């Protein structure tokens, strides 16, 4: 699997305002910004992303996925220099 393929899988199941994916083909890091994360705890956000990958997490197609998840407001506050 490539980073672009993983990015497409996540964004096809979760409306993302911003997404970055990088990794080595088995171990991945993702930065995901989505309004669907509003009101959700970090574990719930991660579960939502895992749901987009379905069986790929169980079949070792995606061996490890480290995530940083943000709502659009959290992302804007993090990137706003003021």
UniProtKB/TrEMBL annotation:
Record's InterPro entries? BolA, BolA-like_sf, BolA/IbaG_stress_morph_reg
Domain of life, per UniProt, equals Bacteria
| Pfam family, any one | BolA
Q: Which family does it belong to?
A: Belongs to the BolA/IbaG family.
- In Swiss-Prot or TrEMBL terms, this protein is called BolA family transcriptional regulator
Q: Which organism is it from?
A: Ramlibacter albus
């Amino acid at each position: 699997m490539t980073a672009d393929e993983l990015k497409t899988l996540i964004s096809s199941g979760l409306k993302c305002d911003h997404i970055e994916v990088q990794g080595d083909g088995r171990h991945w890091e993702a930065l995901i910004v989505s309004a669907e994360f509003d009101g959700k705890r970090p574990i719930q956000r991660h579960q939502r992303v895992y749901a987009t990958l379905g069986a790929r997490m169980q079949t070792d197609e995606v061996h490890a996925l480290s995530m940083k998840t943000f709502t659009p407001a959290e992302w804007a506050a993090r990137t706003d220099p003021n």
